[in-house]
Every structure is written in structure tokens, then in C-alpha cells.
């Protein structure tokens, strides 16, 4: 039976952009598992699999329905133990939870702030209105004000915040070591989100993080490049 992955898209159903969905997509590629992509918009998420939850990705594997990218990765390692491991054992799972927490508190907020209008612009009219209402309520100001000044001091500050990641990647090819693990897909997917929705560049040429990102784009037959840059 073919696995099915519900992924968030904008007006172009062939351009999934959610970082969380990309984590799941790369986890499946890591395992060498084929899947059927089922694109959904923001306003359709709540109806996925009869209202499984309020977020995607959602993976369907026969009768199994799994929501949340980390839960999907854990499920894949349990369900397909004969294929390459995403975590490398219990210790790897624990470290990966730290990586996810760091990424969602350091990289995600920054990207949301500098690409919020770009995300808005890839949506259709109905979803633009939905997205603007939700995000402006969360930020407490217009989207235009959120993204204003993205090339000023906060870009330099963001680049400095990547120094721990940069230092690690100067010593090893991937966050997971010599080979990629789910921890790599977590961080990669945040930058992939930006790559797909925006032309704004946050990584400088020659930065070890930029070099690592390019390596990740080439993984699994170039899965990351299957969706072109904005």
C-alpha cells in the first residue's frame, strides 16, 4: 500500500513549503519509501483525515494515521527498522529533540519575521485572508510591519546566532556526523521553507552552514531540489 503524506501548499499545489512537511518528506526519502503527496491549503488542514488535527504533515500508512513530523519520524523508525535509521538509537532521539527545540526557537521565528509577506503572497486569495488574520492577531501588527527592516541589524544578529551550528559543521559533514540524520532534516527544512517562498538570502556564500545546506539539497537524489527556489 502506498504511503500518503498531506503537505501544506499555496496556490501552486506542486510547491509544498511548510518546514514541518519537509521534515517528513525527507524522513521518507531517508528510508527509501515512496509516497503520494496530498496537497492541502491552510483552510483545508482542519478537514484532513476527517479532522485528525489542526496541523500537517499527516502520514497515512494503511490504517495508521500519524500527525506531527517528529512523531512521523519515530513511527518510520519503528515501522521500518530494516531501513536506514533516522535517529541512530535512543540517545540520538534525545539529542534530536534538543535540535528541534533550538531550531523552532532560533531559526523559525526569524524566518517567519523576514518572509511573512512572501509566505502570504504564495497563497490564493481565500488563504491570504485567512493567513493575514491569523498572523496579524499573533504578531499584534500588520504583516508589512513585521517584515519591515529585514536587511538591517536583525540579519547580522541571526547569522551570529548560527555560530554553534557553524562550528559543528566545520568539523563534520552533517549535524548527524558523517551521514545525515533527522536532526539535519529538521534544520534544513527551516531554510528550505525560506528558499521556496522567498528570494531573501540569509546565508552567505562560503558559510559552512550554506555549504551544508547545499549538501542537504542534493541528498536522496536531490529531493530538496525537486521544488525550485523562489
TrEMBL record:
Domain of life: Bacteria
SUPFAM superfamilies, A to Z: GST C-terminal domain-like, Thioredoxin-like
GO molecular function, one term: glutathione transferase activity
GO BP of this protein: glutathione metabolic process; L-phenylalanine catabolic process
Span of domain GST N-terminal: 8-84
Transmembrane segments: none
Coiled-coil residue windows: none
Protein's UniProt name: Beta-aryl ether-cleaving protein
Species the sequence originates in: Aureimonas ureilytica
Amino acid at each position: 500500500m502506498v504511503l500518503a503524506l498531506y503537505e501544506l501548499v499555496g496556490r501552486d499545489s506542486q510547491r509544498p513549503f511548510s518546514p514541518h512537511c519537509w521534515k517528513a518528506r525527507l524522513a521518507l526519502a531517508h528510508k527509501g519509501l515512496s509516497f503520494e503527496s496530498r496537497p492541502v491549503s491552510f483552510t483545508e488542514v482542519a478537514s484532513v483525515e476527517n479532522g485528525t488535527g489542526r496541523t500537517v504533515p499527516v502520514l497515512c500508512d494503511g490504517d495508521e494515521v500519524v500527525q506531527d513530523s517528529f512523531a512521523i519520524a519515530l513511527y518510520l523508525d519503528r515501522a521500518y527498522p530494516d531501513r536506514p535509521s533516522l535517529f541512530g538509537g535512543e540517545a540520538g532521539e534525545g539529542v534530536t529533540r534538543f535540535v528541534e527545540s533550538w531550531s523552532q526557537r532560533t531559526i523559525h521565528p526569524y524566518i517567519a519575521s523576514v518572509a511573512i509577506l512572501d509566505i502570504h503572497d504564495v497563497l490564493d486569495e481565500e488563504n491570504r485572508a485567512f493567513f493575514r488574520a491569523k498572523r496579524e492577531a499573533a504578531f499584534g501588527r500588520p504583516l508589512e510591519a513585521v517584515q519591515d527592516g529585514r536587511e538591517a541589524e536583525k540579519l547580522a544578529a541571526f547569522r551570529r546566532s548560527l555560530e554553534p551550528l557553524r562550528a559543528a559543521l566545520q568539523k563534520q559533514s552533517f549535524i548527524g556526523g558523517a551521514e545525515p540524520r533527522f536532526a539535519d532534516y529538521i534544520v534544513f527544512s527551516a531554510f528550505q521553507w525560506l528558499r521556496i517562498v522567498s528570494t531573501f538570502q540569509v546565508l552567505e556564500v562560503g558559510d559552512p552552514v550554506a555549504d551544508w545546506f547545499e549538501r542537504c539539497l542534493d541528498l536522496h537524489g536531490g529531493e530538496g531540489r525537486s521544488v525550485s527556489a523562489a
